[in-house]
Amino acid sequence: MANTDKRYKRLQRQLDDAQTYEEWFFAAEALDELDGHLAWREETGTELLHEELIRDHMKAMRRHRKNGETRTLTRVLQESLYRHLGELSNPDLYAVARTGTKYLATEFLLEVERSMRFICDNPMPGMSSEQSLRLFRAAERVYGRPALMLSGGAAFGIYHLGVTRALWRQDLLPRVIAGSSMGAIIAGAICNRTEDELEDFFEDPETLHRDAFDWLSPRKIWNKGAIMDQSHLHKHILTNLGSRSFGEASERSGRTLNISVSPTRTRQKPRLLNELASPEVLVDSAVLASCAVPGIYPSVMLKARDRLKGGDAVRPYMPTERWMDGSVHGDLPLMRMARLHNINKTIVSQANPHVVPFISHHHERGVKASLKQAGLSLLHSQVSVALELTRNTWSSTLVRPYLEQAHAMTTQSYLGDINIHFPFRPALYRKILSNPSMEDLAMYIRLGEQATWPRIPMIRDQIRISRTFAECIEKLKKKAGAERGQAE
Fold this sequence. Notes:
This protein starts with a helix and ends with a helix. Helix 5 packs antiparallel against helix 6. It is of the alpha/beta class. The strands form two sheets. Strands 1, 2, 3, 4, 7, 8 and 9 form a seven-stranded mixed β-sheet that branches. The chain contains 22 helices and nine strands.
């Protein structure tokens, strides 16, 4: 027993000290074996899955692939995905073992992937690549795709670098990325780079410009109504992102960038800026607006490419409106993302300092964790109700806009389908408005990677089918193009 305890503690230290996902997974798998979680993954008869039907569908998929029956295989795929995706998305399936869920669930998803690739490579008789492409595109629209959402968080948001690097190294970084405030800077940096540039970005983050915060003198603070130099922040943004429109960034990176900005007027609505809704808007102006935390930075007028004048000409975008921090009204624009981009799975990296204390126990299980969650939820509800009553009482005063902002921040949702959050460490709160040293940069990145590694098995399973759709569509686009070329 003593030897087992020593081994357990040694493995736990290895888990905590891991420098790569592979090191983390090796220790996690050994701990799962000691805890009996690997046996749990192998066990049958769980109430969480319709095991008998899943096995029947897997047998049918293998049989139809063996016989080359693509049309019948397509029908089996449609039925099985419709029947099982709800249960396979249950987070309880990933709440036991560190290294993943039931082997049956992962095996089923692998069979679906193999079947999709089989249909892609072996089209139905009499169906051209163009027709197969339309079939896959229609199915993808029904199924949806994943998105990564990066919250605000001031200096804590640097932690998103570690989250995105961990996903990128496992080839799990979604093509659709949204960001607010500091999350907008990270999202913008990623979505303005080519794949080769992205490799340099993640493998050598020390080269990034880190000087974002610059405190103003007391006289300037009084005159401007803000405590930070916005021009200094803009230089930081331009150095790390460049100056491109949303349309130009998408064309360059192949990724879809989304930036949340909040209105300064109560009659305006929050906006989600992207290549679809605002292709000519400059990303750097959108990021600057999304970082404009009231009292810290002044609100911003957005800028856009002026195509009529040509070249690099710039014009005001919605010149009568000014915008501020996206975290105020829409830190995570879940509904707007779903409507615009057909999102079916949201991966949220949450680093907002006012949110982290309320969600730090979100992944824990047991009576103690439930009591903590219940207590924090009650406190959160009381604060929301108090702000609702207060803003109605002070509705005709100058205080009303600030109460509106506070109420919006307490009532919005800060969680998605899969959540990765900054650890609650009170000692770090003194660094919120400080430029990171090289040691701080490494610390934030490491925290982000460590928080992401335990979610990798779930993320890999949950976005497997969406990634397969994307890869098959790209392959079929090339085939259809080649067929058109031959016909001409």
